[in-house]
Specification:
- By secondary structure, the protein is of the alpha+beta class.
- It has 16 helices and 16 strands.
- It has helices at about 5, 35-40, 45-55, 60-70, 75-80, 85-90, 135-145, 165-175, 180-190, 255-270, 270-280, 315-320, 340-390, 405-425, 435-460, 465-500, and strands at about 15, 20, 30-35, 105, 110, 120, 125, 135, 195-200, 210-215, 235, 240-245, 280-285, 290, 300, 310.
- The strands form 6 sheets. The protein has a 5-stranded antiparallel sheet. Strands 4-7-8 form a 3-stranded antiparallel sheet.
- α3 packs parallel to α5, α14 packs antiparallel against α15 and α15 packs antiparallel against α16.
- The two termini are about 35 Å apart.
- About 25% of the residues are buried.
Length: about 500
């Protein structure tokens, strides 16, 4: 989603500190990051302090020392003044009386000791102060494999303890973005600290979020059937993709995490296929092969084992030829009776029909969300035309004057996502008086979402030859409907939170 939506979204979380936000329905505080901003904020920001205290040490060496000391700048300073030679040795750096002398030399007639390649033409080789020279191809392969660990990378010579500077690593790998070693280090740290950091689950998004405070992973467990919706930690990444920090799934309010897990499993596995088979097929009494009836005759012959039986009572067909039509007689407790089979099939059909009712609506809103994202791109194109038209009439027109369009699309997507998950919520909900209240709130939100969606469809329609005029005519309605979507979505979720906590709404899982 476009970057400007981050600063002025229709439903931005309250900003607490620089870059920090609070989750919408609780006090969970989080910080969205990109890898670049994380490296700058967590690691490189400590370099000026080190340079002030150790001006005699080069930037490259300070960066190696800082990484070795787990980014604790005070430890670097104390260790250096206590015993500089010991710190330099531990970091794999040349001693003060040695020259760094890291070189990229162009050499004629060079034979690489590793790949044994004979370079007759001039070729570039790399070496540290140890003067162990190897070709760049070997160093590239060596660093590419070693960098995944995120640790400091030593000279390719096995017996050598000198460390390759970060700057040289970037040059050998020929990367456009600097700090490849720090990127790998940061990724490794984030992947190991899953209680504190979570990658955004949205497709193609590479940002992540850090939970700052008021979150304890032990308090919420997606496998534990907790109904406390108010404690679900919904966060956003830097691109404003909302997701649950606990289960790392998209924003699924008003559903608890365990209900989401049940629903996703139900939709993904073949349990509903089995339900359909139970409602529309029988198993052969002899070999258990599933058979679907394709005609009116109840005399069935299994194509696998050739067993002949009655479709009504599943009894041997020979008994029917002898005149013993026992399938017409009810036997109490007989699970092979026609009434029992009819009841079982009816229950399966009702269960399947109920599931399809909620799933169809869930899937429709999921599909509509993807359509809304395409609408967003078209609206941006229309917005540019709108701005050009308005600039001719208003001198001080800025992008903020048309931001209501992007905010409205975001409100539409937020409303659809909430609607989508209300059908999962309702599927597992037990019937009761307060179920009707929830369904009424669901209807209110649904109507508002569809009203706003209809306006955008009218704006971007190919038949609409005056899109700017349509925007001007519908501006106030667009803004009002956007606000109403956010308000009704909040009311729906807050109502669900209160009623579930007071045991007025119950799940049947």
């Amino acid at each position: 989603m476009d970057g400007e939506l981050y600063e002025s979204s229709a439903e931005a979380s309250p900003v607490l500190d620089v870059g920090c936000f609070m989750s919408e329905f609780n006090d969970k505080i989080y910080h969205p990051w990109t890898l670049k901003s994380f490296i700058k904020g967590k690691y490189l920001s400590k370099m000026p302090n080190l340079q002030n205290h150790l001006p005699q040490v080069s930037y490259d060496d300070l960066l190696i020392m800082l990484q070795y000391k787990k980014w604790q700048s005070e430890e670097v300073i104390n260790s250096y003044f206590d015993n500089p030679d010991q710190l330099l040795k531990a970091c794999g750096l040349p001693f003060k009386w040695q020259e760094s002398n890291n070189t990229f030399d162009l050499i004629n007639n060079f034979t690489c000791p590793i790949c044994c390649e004979d370079y007759i033409e001039p070729t570039t080789v790399y070496s540290l102060a140890c003067n162990h020279k190897y070709c760049l191809q070997c160093y590239n392969s060596y660093i590419s494999n070693s960098i995944l660990s995120g640790k400091l990378i030593k000279c390719i010579e096995p017996s050598c303890a000198l460390t390759i500077p970060h700057r040289d690593i970037d040059r050998i790998l020929k990367v456009e973005e600097p700090n490849q070693l720090l990127n790998s280090y940061a990724k490794s740290f984030i992947n190991q600290s899953t209680d504190q950091f979570k990658w955004c689950p949205s497709t193609d998004c590479v940002s992540f979020t850090e939970m700052i405070k008021n979150y304890n992973a032990d308090d919420i467990d997606e496998d534990y059937e907790s109904n406390d919706i108010s404690n679900i930690p919904i966060v956003s990444c830097i691109e404003r993709h909302e997701f649950c920090f606990n289960c790392n799934f998209e924003n699924h309010l008003p559903c608890p995490c365990f209900v989401v897990k049940l629903w996703i499993k139900k939709c993904q596995d073949d349990s509903e296929t089995a339900h359909w088979m139970d409602a529309n097929t029988h198993n052969c009494p002899r070999c258990e092969t599933s058979i679907e009836k394709n005609g009116g005759c109840n005399h069935m012959t299994c194509q696998k084992c050739r067993h002949q039986f009655c479709w009504i009572c599943l009894g041997d067909w020979n008994a029917h030829n002898a005149g013993f039509y026992t399938c017409n007689k009810f036997k109490d407790g007989d699970t092979n009776s026609k009434d029992y089979e009819d009841k079982k099939a009816k229950e399966s059909r009702i269960s399947l029909k109920r599931y399809l009712h909620f799933y169809k609506r869930f899937a429709i809103h999921e599909s509509s969300m993807r359509g809304d994202l395409l609408t967003l791109k078209k609206v941006h194109e229309v917005t540019k035309v709108y701005m050009e038209d308005r600039k001719n009439q208003e001198k001080n027109l800025s992008w903020n004057d048309v931001q209501f369009l992007s905010d409205a699309i975001r409100a539409l997507i937020i409303g659809r996502k909430a609607l989508k998950w209300t059908y999962c919520f309702a599927f597992y909900l037990k019937n009761g008086n307060f179920t009707e209240i929830f369904e009424s709130n669901q209807d209110f939100l649904s109507k508002t979402v569809e009203d706003l969606s209809e306006i955008f469809e009218k704006i971007i329609s190919k038949k609409n030859r005056n899109k700017v005029e349509t925007i001007m005519q519908e501006k106030n309605r667009i803004i009002n409907l956007s606000d109403l979507i956010i308000s009704r979505k909040r009311s729906l979720i807050e109502g669900a939170i209160v009623n579930v906590n007071e045991d007025l709404l119950r799940f049947n899982t």
